[in-house]
Specification:
By secondary structure, this protein is of the alpha/beta class. The protein has 7 helices and 6 strands, in the order βαβαβααβαβααβ.
């Protein structure tokens, strides 16, 4: 039976402006990999945050949608990245600040995931991949900080029985990035492969979380 895959979220899935020269965007690469008779709709928009997906994109999901894929949260984290510059008196204080930020993020992200799951459609969620910065100090700090937010995403996925794509494992090479934080055509191809692998290979009826790849 034909399906209709819908992509929700931010520029990880809406990366056309970052792959110039006619190179394929994520949505193009997804469509080229779909089984015969399937369709794909891109609702993800560059710059989106969790609230804008919840408030704008969900209302546009087509009535014949069969599968939903969500990749959002990176821009929410960017809004909080200032905490990496806050002076602290101890490592314990730094961890407390990170925990408070993570819990706020987790609650907001869970609300979005619950709204998606409530639609009764097979749903896939993506983690936030690591940046690709030449600044080694920033890169290390960002990777450490993102582990907290990604743990929140995976916690929500497990508790709601939703499969997850860990984009940190998908985009792991410099060639996967068009800049510090956007996927290139090469990275987009790997993201598309991961999406189609889960959509066509996961047992959604089991209502269990599995982390890919």
């Amino acid at each position: 039976m034909a399906g209709h895959l819908v992509l929700l979220g931010d520029s990880i899935l809406d990366n056309a402006s970052y792959v110039p020269g006619g190179r394929p965007a994520v949505i193009d690469q997804v469509r080229s990999r779909l089984p015969e008779g399937w369709a794909a709709t891109l609702l993800a928009r560059d710059g989106s945050v969790i609230d804008s997906v919840l408030g704008l994109q969900l209302s546009k999901i087509p009535g014949d949608a069969s599968h939903l894929v969500l990749s959002v949260g990176g821009n929410d984290v960017l809004e909080q990245i200032r905490i990496l510059q806050e002076p602290v008196k101890s490592v314990a204080e730094a961890l407390r600040i990170m925990l408070e930020s993570r819990l706020e993020f987790e609650e907001k992200h869970r609300g979005l995931m619950e709204a998606l799951v409530a639609r009764g459609l097979p749903t896939v969620v993506c983690t936030i991949y690591n940046p690709c910065s030449d600044d080694e100090n920033f890169q290390r700090a960002a990777v450490a900080a993102l582990s907290h937010y990604n743990d929140a995403i995976l916690h929500n996925a497990r508790s709601l029985g939703v499969p997850a794509i860990d984009l940190r494992a998908v985009c792991s090479e410099i060639s996967d990035y068009a800049n510090e934080i956007e996927p290139s055509a090469h990275g987009g191809a790997k993201i598309a492969d991961a999406i189609l692998g889960v959509v066509t290979g996961h047992d959604f009826a089991s209502q269990r979380c599995a982390v890919f790849p």
